[in-house]
Structures are given as structure tokens and as C-alpha cells.
């Protein structure tokens, strides 16, 4: 009697892809998605916050997407997904992570003195320091008692250029928004201003209080030529309220031009000239004694 040979057991793990991990700032929710071309595959999805233990988000599911409401910010969220086929073969885990920050967009540069062509040609630059794009709808940039209602999408690690009155302030770089109209039509006071950036829920994302005088920048006339340099942020991770975190633009131009083709003395939509992620620490109230010929 001939015995029928047994069919070889399938031990091949299923293939799949972990497609995306996105964060929606407006709704404070994370979404994840995955996919597989194979039939009869189920998935396990787990997450953890920082160094905490893994937690089950979904298991033994045929779904290909999930979401999680973010309760804690200034944390790193980790997600991992694995696939399991109908014979019980398991794939390796695939993992993604994202850092959620509570103050993702900052005031990065302020051209309060205008340009060589015109003192009224002011501009302001914002920067998205997060790992995700943000919809600026209903965000407001307050300048003293006035406000600019923002709009548009600001991609991760990118800049948002606001120009006053028209798009000729920086003639060869397109502005992301022009600020004019009933809500804000005035100028940045040359003697200083208090800037507050609030998100769609009214939370402060950044603040710079130069109301008693600008922390940096330059506005002077040398032999009939106006020198107007911007105020640049040094470290995007440090508070905008620290005066030592601002410095005057120290270059001679990066190719950006004003409406009369003079160089813009600043860095619109580029990394600041004074950028330093690890600047020296400022020490206050340092006391030094001199004893027996030795400083201690």
C-alpha cells in the first residue's frame, strides 16, 4: 500500500507593511495604518509611551487602522504591528515612533525694523519644530493688543513666512500669508512688542516679551544707507521668553531681496545665522571669593 506523503507544513510568516503613523494636533489624536496583500491575515497592535511597558491597542484584528487619543505630551509614542496568518505563523514586529511636543510652533525670526527699501516692510517667520505637519486654522499670533489669524498647513521642520501688507516685502520669496485687514493693519513698534502665538484651542505655543525693547535686531543709518537686521532665535528648543536666546542677524545676506533688490539682512525660510542647538549656559548670581591668593 502506497502512503500519501504529507504536505509540507507552511512555516512562512505573512508579509505586511506598517504604512503610517500620523498625529493630528487639532484633535490630539494619533492614527496608525498597515496593510497586507495576503488573505486571511490578522494583526496585533501595541503601543507604549516613553520607557513604559507595551500595551495592547488591538489584537487578533482584521482591521488595518487604529487611533489613540493623546493624553500626555512632551513624550515619545511607540507603536508596533505584527501579522499572523491562518496557520499561526507570526511576522516580526514592525515599529514606528513619534515625539509629541506641547509647543510645536515657535516664533523664529522678527524683522521689526523692516528692510532697507522701506521701514514698513516688516516680516515674521514661524518654525514647526515637531515631527508632524500642523493645520494653522484658528491659530492666532498676537502682537501687543492686535492679532493675526493664521491659515494654511505648516509641514514638519519647516518655516512659515508672514509679510506685512503685500508679497513684495521679500521680492524673490513667496510669503505664506500676508497680514492686513481689520484684525491687524499696524506696524511692529520699533521700541518693542509682546508677541504671543496661540493654537486653535487658545493654548500658548510660544511667546516673546520684548515690550520694553527688542531683544535683538538693528535699525540704523550709516552715511545715508539704512542697515536693518532681523532678530533671530538661537535655539528653537529653548524658551522665546529668554532674552539671551535671541541675537541680531550677523551675515550680509543669503540671496533674499527686498522690493528694491537690496539684500535682506536676515534668513527668511532658512536656518537662522545664529542657530545653535547647544549654546553656552548663562550663569546668574555667580559668587567668586579670593582667599590666600586663590580664586574659589
Structure at a glance:
The chain has 296 residues and is mainly beta. It is 0% helix and 40% strand.
Sequence-ordered SSE layout with sheet pairings:
Layout (H helix, E strand, L loop, with lengths): L16 E8 L4 E7 L6 E8 L5 E7 L3 E5 L5 E10 L9 E7 L4 E7 L11 E6 L5 E2 L4 E4 L2 E4 L3 E2 L4 E6 L12 E3 L14 E5 L5 E6 L8 E5 L2 E5 L1 E3 L12 E3 L41 E2 L2 E2 L1
Strand proportion, as a percent range, falls in: 35-45%
**Which class best fits the helix and strand makeup?**
mainly beta
Radius of gyration: 27 Å
Quick one: biggest sheet?
A: 6 strands, mixed
- The total beta strand count reads 23
| Separation, N- and C-terminal Cα atoms | 99 Å
- Strand order across the biggest sheet? 15-14-9-8-20-21
Order of helices and strands: EEEEEEEEEEEEEEEEEEEEEEE
Q: State the helix count.
A: 0
- Principal-axes geometry comes out as elongated
**Oligomer type:** single chain
| Proportion of helical residues | under 10%
Provide the low-confidence segments as ranges.
none
Mean pLDDT: 92
Amino acid at each position: 500500500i502506497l502512503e500519501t506523503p504529507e504536505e509540507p507544513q507552511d512555516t512562512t510568516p505573512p508579509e505586511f507593511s506598517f504604512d503610517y503613523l500620523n498625529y493630528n494636533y487639532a484633535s490630539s489624536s494619533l492614527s496608525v495604518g498597515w496593510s497586507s496583500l495576503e488573505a486571511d491575515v490578522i494583526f496585533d497592535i501595541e503601543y507604549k509611551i516613553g520607557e513604559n511597558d507595551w500595551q495592547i491597542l488591538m489584537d487578533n484584528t482584521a482591521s488595518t487602522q487604529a487611533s489613540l487619543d493623546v493624553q500626555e505630551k512632551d513624550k515619545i509614542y511607540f507603536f508596533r504591528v505584527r501579522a499572523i496568518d491562518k496557520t499561526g505563523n507570526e511576522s516580526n514586529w514592525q515599529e514606528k515612533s513619534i515625539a509629541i511636543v506641547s509647543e510645536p510652533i515657535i516664533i523664529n525670526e522678527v524683522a521689526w525694523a523692516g528692510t532697507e527699501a522701506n521701514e514698513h516692510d516688516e516680516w515674521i517667520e514661524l518654525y514647526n519644530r515637531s515631527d508632524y505637519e500642523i493645520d494653522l486654522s484658528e491659530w492666532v499670533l498676537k502682537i501687543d493688543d492686535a492679532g493675526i489669524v493664521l491659515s494654511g498647513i505648516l509641514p514638519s521642520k519647516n518655516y512659515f513666512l508672514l509679510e506685512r501688507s503685500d508679497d513684495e516685502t521679500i521680492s524673490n520669496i513667496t510669503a505664506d500669508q500676508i497680514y492686513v485687514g481689520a484684525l491687524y493693519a499696524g506696524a511692529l513698534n520699533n521700541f518693542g512688542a509682546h508677541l504671543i502665538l496661540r493654537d486653535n484651542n487658545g493654548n500658548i505655543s510660544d511667546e516673546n516679551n520684548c515690550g520694553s525693547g527688542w531683544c535683538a535686531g538693528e535699525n540704523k543709518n550709516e552715511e545715508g544707507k539704512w542697515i536693518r537686521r532681523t532678530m533671530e532665535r538661537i535655539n528653537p528648543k529653548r524658551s522665546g521668553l529668554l532674552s539671551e536666546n535671541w541675537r541680531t542677524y550677523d551675515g550680509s545676506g543669503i540671496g533674499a531681496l527686498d522690493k528694491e533688490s537690496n539684500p535682506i539682512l536676515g534668513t527668511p525660510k532658512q536656518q537662522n545665522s545664529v542657530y545653535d542647538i547647544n549654546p553656552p549656559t548663562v550663569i546668574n548670581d555667580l559668587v567668586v571669593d579670593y582667599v590666600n591668593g586663590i580664586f574659589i
